[in-house]
Structure formats: C-alpha cells, structure tokens
Amino acid sequence: MPGGTIYSRSNGPLVGDGVPTVMIHGGPGGNHVGMVGALPLADRHGIILYDQLDCGLSDRPGDPANWTVDRFVAEVDAVRAAYGLEQLHLCGTSWGGTLALEYAARQPAGLKSLILMSPLVSTRAWLADAKVHIRNLPREAQAAIAEAERTGNFDSFTFQEADRLYASRHLSRERLSPLHLACIGRQDPLFNLDLYLAMWGPSEFIVTGSLKQYDGEPLLAQVVAPTLLVAGEHDEARPETLRGFARRMRDARFAMVPGAGHWVENDRPADYQRILRDWLEARDA
What we know:
Elements: E1 8-11, E2 21-24, E3 47-50, H1 69-83, E4 88-93, H2 95-105, E5 111-117, H3 123-135, H4 139-151, H5 157-170, H6 178-184, H7 193-199, E6 227-232, H8 239-247, E7 252-257, H9 264-267, H10 269-284
C-alpha cells in the first residue's frame, strides 16, 4: 500500500467454521510481538498479526506524513485484501484500539465483531484516568511529575523513577511472560520511539504529539458490530471509564481482568485467552 509494505503473519485456520481475527498492536510505535499472547487461540481460530508501517518488521520509510490515524486505519483493509477476508473479528489493544474503533465506526461490510482491549478512545479520557492514578502515587513521585511538566525536562532521574513506578503499577504489573520472553528476550528492538514521541509524547501520561487533541468518543455510537471492551483492574484505561464507554455503544459488553495492568495479555494470559476465546466462539456459533 502507499508508504511501504507492512509485515503480517497468520496462525491457525483462516477458512472453516470460525471467522479469523485481525489483531492491531498498540503504541504508537509498537509491534505485533506485543500481541503474541493471542496465538494459543490459533488451535481453533485464525489469528492474524501485523506490524504497522514504521513498526516492527514492516518497512520503515520514516516519513511523518504517514503517521496519521487515517493512514494506519487503512492498513486494516490492506490486511483484509492480502488474506481475502470477507469476514473478520477485529481486536485492537491500546493505540490499536483507537484504530479498531475508527475502522468499526465506518461500518465496514463483514465485520463480525469488535474487541477493544484497554483502548485509547480519547486523549482527554486517557489523561483524566492518568490523573487519578498519579494522585495515588507517593508524594515525591507526584512532585517529580509536576516539576517535569512545569520545566519540560523529562530526562531527570526523579521523573524517570516516577515514570517507572507508574508503569509498574498500571502498564504491566508482571515480568514478561514466557511466551513474550521467547519472542523478544529482555529488550524490544522493534519499538519505534520516534513514532511514539511524534504521535504521543515522553510518557504514557504526558502527551505532546499529534494525538494531543484526539477524540474518538463520538465514534462509539456509530459502531454497529457487537463489541467487547476489556480492561485490567489496574489499567491505564480505568475500568470505570471503559464501562462508561460500553454504555454509550449499541451492542457492547465490558469485562475486567482482576490483578492486571494495561498489558492484560502479559499480566494475566490465561484470563486474556479465556475472555477472547469465549467471545469469539459465541460470535461464531
């Protein structure tokens, strides 16, 4: 497609009784390895993972003109065309949830269901959730964050420590699962920091990039496909917020995963797989 070639992989049956699921990774700047926790479902369900342009194993032209919501949403149709998917389930995580919501709101033909895992629905709501979490950090961490926001210095030791504490509480609460370790070891060389900084910013809770004013909340009411929203108990996208989003959709349910942070599939892989499997099997019945 315009801009470059994107990498994808499929596992499990793409034809048969079940409808394949296309997984959209988070970021911006992440990659498909963050979603390999869904691969155990490939024993019965077709699972397609792909890397967005400038991410992972896809082409990396490094042109910021490509770094738009619409350009990344268009990749879903490119994946569909490559695999000949007349029908699909669509699952997006975090920033991938943004793209999945955008795609579903256009009411594309053949969209069997939508799964939004800890999605970024609007930057306003994301930052409101972050403020709640920050208020529960130790006072010294709160002070470090406030000072960094005041000065614009996000490289200080005190801010970095506060940022790591926030991540350990709300991003991923567990060490990498064996499945993720097998794929990426203890580093993630596939992450595109430049893309993350350009679209988001220096921290999960500080936005300076092109998504600063992003608001997908009006799209919620435009989705007609059955939708499942999922959050971890300690998620960056707070369960209370996602439960409210579900109420604003035509046909949506909400599920919370106890003990998990934002990266649900890493923190509670068995629960993650059970929720996905139950949802997919019910929609394909």
